[in-house]
Amino acid sequence: MGRDTTLLSATLTQEGLLRKALLVVGGSIFIALAAKVSIPLWPAPMSLQTLAILMVGFSFGARLGAITVLAYLAQGALGLPMFTPSTAPGLAAFVGPTAGFLVGFVGMAWLAGLAAERGLARGVIGTALSGIVVSALLYLPGVAWPMAVAGAFGVEAGWVGLGTGSIWAGFIAPFLLGDAIKAVLAALMIAGGWKALSARG
């Protein structure tokens, strides 16, 4: 991780193993709490979960951001109440209709962190655009799972093998505006964090 390319690297002079572990735990709890704030829609609620994942990625960087989301998913797989209220608990979440999004969250955090490390997520506009692009890429694993991957793994359910129209209507269209808003909110908060650091310095 490059020095002073993320809020974490600019804030901490030393990133010891214990401190990183605490950040991972804290970040995973932050995502879990955000997941509970949701508007119930089918098949996935529009929650603040992805907003939290963007912020973890932008703040922690690619590697630690991805590790944090992996820890979040592992805690959820163990049955802890980490996911959105409508997501099945435990391992059942990873064979449900939103499993592709859950797995894609790791890539989302990694890409957001990479954007921060490369200097793309600095300032409101750059961070917002990065957040929108990263959020859009989340739909790739998200829709691949119900369209084809779940069926290939032998999952049988009414949402498996849906056509393009149903995928668009149920898995994409209801969430596009929310994702754009969350990308802008993440950008405002990250930019505010940088401004606060500058004022402190």
- Overall domain count: 1
Helical region count?
A: 9
- Sheet-strand content, in percent, reads under 5%
Assembly of the depicted chains: single chain
Gyration radius from CA atoms, angstroms:
17 Å
The average pLDDT score comes to 90
Overall geometry: globular
- What's the count of strands? 2
Major sheet size, sense and barrel closure:
2 strands, antiparallel
Unreliable runs? none
- Cα(first) to Cα(last) distance is 21 Å
CATH architecture verdict: Orthogonal Bundle
Describe the protein's architecture and organization.
By secondary structure, this protein is mainly alpha-helical. It has a single domain, classed as Arp2/3 complex 21 kDa subunit ARPC3, CATH 1.10.1760.20. The chain has helices spanning 7-11, 17-35, 49-60, 62-77, 99-117, 124-137, 139-152, 164-172, 176-200; strands at 38-39, 46-47. The chain has a two-stranded antiparallel ribbon with strand order 1-2. A hairpin with a 6-residue loop joins strand 1 (38-39) and strand 2 (46-47). Helix 5 packs antiparallel against helix 6 (124-137) and helix 7 (139-152) packs across helix 8. It starts with 6 loop residues before the first helix and ends with a helix.
Q: Topology, pairings included?
A:
Blueprint (H helix, E strand, L loop, with lengths): L6 H5 L5 H19 L2 E2 L6 E2 L1 H12 L1 H16 L21 H19 L6 H14 L1 H14 L11 H9 L3 H25 L1
Antiparallel strand pairs: 1-2
Helix pairs in contact: 2-3, 2-4, 3-4, 3-5, 3-9, 4-5, 5-6, 5-7, 6-9, 7-8
Keywords:
2% strand, Arp2/3 complex 21 kDa subunit ARPC3, two-stranded antiparallel ribbon, mainly alpha, single chain
